[in-house]
Design brief:
Elements: E1 3-8, E2 13-19, E3 26-33, H1 37-47, E4 50-57, H2 69-82, E5 88-92, H3 96-106, H4 111-114, H5 117-137
Parallel strand pairs: 1-4, 4-5
Antiparallel strand pairs: 1-2, 2-3
Helix pairs in contact: 3-5
Length: 139
């Protein structure tokens, strides 16, 4: 069975999460430098079956796209050309960083670990994926 992969796209770093093959649980996979993201995905897609990719849609509180959208749109266009058989969908990513920090705090992570931006990005990707899965299950 194929997995669903989520991307928390950032200018410098990108957090990646993935479901288990049964699509029950979202797990953090890794954080990669954004300039290495396409290479990482090519490699991952050769090893694992992925049925869909979910990418965080950055919105401001007024529902307008945030500034980061100008980096995400070219990536999505490139993704569609390179991986035409894998659908990519946007999912609202508002508050994911805040929720990631909160979950790290509630999980008892030390202050030093909570400052790890790579971990925040990875957890944010998990939150995006969990939100997507919940919206599909409860639709």
């Amino acid at each position: 069975m194929a997995r669903i992969l989520s991307i928390d796209y950032g200018k410098k770093r990108t957090g990646i999460a993935v479901t288990d093959p049964l699509k029950i649980i979202a797990n953090g996979l890794t954080t990669v430098p954004t300039h290495e993201l396409i290479g990482f995905l090519k490699n991952y897609f050769q090893k694992e079956a992925v049925e869909k990719v979910i990418i965080g849609l950055p919105k401001q509180m007024n529902n307008q796209p945030s500034e980061n959208m100008r980096y995400i749109e070219p990536f999505v266009a490139q993704f569609k050309k390179l991986f035409p058989d894998i659908p990519i969908e946007y999912f609202d990513e508002r508050f994911t960083s805040t929720l990631a920090h909160r979950s790290m705090l509630e999980g008892g992570l030390k202050k030093k670990d909570r400052r790890n931006k790579e971990l925040v990005d990875e957890i944010s990707a998990v939150i995006i994926l969990q939100g997507y899965m919940e919206s599909v299950l409860h639709a």
